[in-house]
Amino acid sequence: MEEGKVHSKKILLVDDEPGIIHMLETLLRKEGYSFIHSAYSGKEVKEKISSTTYDLIVLDVMLPDTDGFQLCQEIRKETNAPILFLTARSGDLDMLTGFGIGGDDYITKPFNPMEVAARIHAQFRRQEQYQQIVEQTAEVYHFGSITIDKKAAQLLISGKAIACPAKEFELLLFLVEHPNQVFTAGQLYESVWGYDSLGDEKTVTIHIMRLRKKIEKNPKYPSVIITLRGIGYKFVPPNEGYSL
Question: Most buried among 121, 146, 147, 172, by the most CB within 10 A?
Answer without folding.
Answer: 172
